[in-house]
Amino acid sequence: MIRTLSAYFYLIKSNLKSQMRSYSFLLVIGISVFAGYACVPDAAAGYEIFYIGGVRGIYNSAWLGGLAAMLSTMMLWLFGFFMLRSQISGDVRLKLGPLIASTPVRKIRYIASKAAANFVVMLVIGAVLLVAFMAMQLLRAEDSQLRLMDYMAPFFYLTFPSLFLLSSLTVLFDVFPGLKGVMGNVLFFCLWIAIGVMSIAAPSDWGDLFGINGILKTMAHSAAKHYPTLSSIEESGSFGYYPTQGPISTFVWEGAAWDHSLILIRLVWIAAGIVGVVLSALLFRRFENSESSSKVHPLLASGKEKTTPLPLARIEHSVSLKLSPAVKVKSARLPGRVKAELKLMLKGMSLWWTLPAIALISGPMLITSNSINNWLPFIMIWPLALWSQLGTRDKHNFTTELILSSSSPLVKWLTEWLSGVLITLLFSTGAITRFIVEGQMASLLAWGTGILFIPTLALALGTLGGSKKLFEVIYLLWWYVGPLNHVPSLDFLGIFERNTALYLMLTVLLFVAGITIRLLQTGNLSIRRRSI
User: Which residues, in sequence order, are bridge partners of residue 52?
Assistant: First the structure.
């Protein structure tokens, strides 16, 4: 028993160290600290993040502890999942699979240690967010008395079991067939939205996985008691950016009643997490390569190696071997580079990916004017798997040094960027044709800016993070809030609100920033071609 616990301890410790040393961990920690600051605005800040009919609670431990619990579950279910979901795939990419498979570590121990390490990492991030809210309570000084139980109770009842279930999903999505790539990321993003909607509108605590509904109801009920005019919105409350004018009315909220009956509900979520870990262990194939294991070389199968001796008569000592002389040729032309890049981007795309792509491209020319605006956003979500390759393929395949030995970083950047623009342009042909036919030049210009903006964002984030996940999570959020839900300032496609100048400027800034990061990463600020 002690040896088993010791093995789990060292596995979790090693996984935890590798996570806490990553840039993605530092990025999420930075987001948590910033969220703690931004979600507790000063009375004169002119905005609110949590809205209940234009009023809010005094910044005491109960109010901020409840906000921290709701925010940590929602934020970590998104950012934490994308940060931690590829730990097993990472071992495969680093060629550690055969080494791990040769050890006596059982599958369930390996999977459970990965899930446990992810759980501990998310608890650390949640604790950082909690400390950030405590610091903001002292900074705002509306109530300087820190009551730790008001912070810890919602963290224990809500955040702890929710993150435990999430940790099991990080390994399940990494071993379940078909969910390892972009499709799994998109599916989880839809799941995150569904859980968020269900948590806000849940009729009972059983469906409130984020723990939002229970806190919202008590906060709104307390607000209605202090301000009777708010009785009609007693069941409401939402997160977002809400501009305010003048002083904000406040009230004292003493916190939710943490009934012990909630423990049974949360134990169910913990049990669901355990089931997820067991299912992941059953699906995990212990890095088996079916292709290599099923095919045995005939020489190895027979145990005899057939060798054919080289006749001495055919060996000519007098004639030395001559290699063809190295001929200096001009560097490959840009169109050829772009063509090769496009082939790499489209490699592996199956017929089931191509058929929906054709339907999305041709859709704008076939549907009615009443439905066109609802169709357009979905055109710019299907190529997500292609855009996310920009700036990350060389690092993922360990070919960075090979590419840099024959190409300037600036030329490589331009090649990838042009490939991304051409892919986006290809998917936009139907929409562009529709705009031209109907004479919508303003929409055409705004959409054209989006064609430049999307691959530039993908390439800049891919270069910065070195991973597909950073772009995928940011773009999915941006796309969902902006073009799909009609938030004007975030509509980079100009479907409902045209911000052409804004996104053209962002494109230029991202382009320059991405090139600068690439040159700094390679340690080469020269645009000249390297000599071999």
Answer: 55
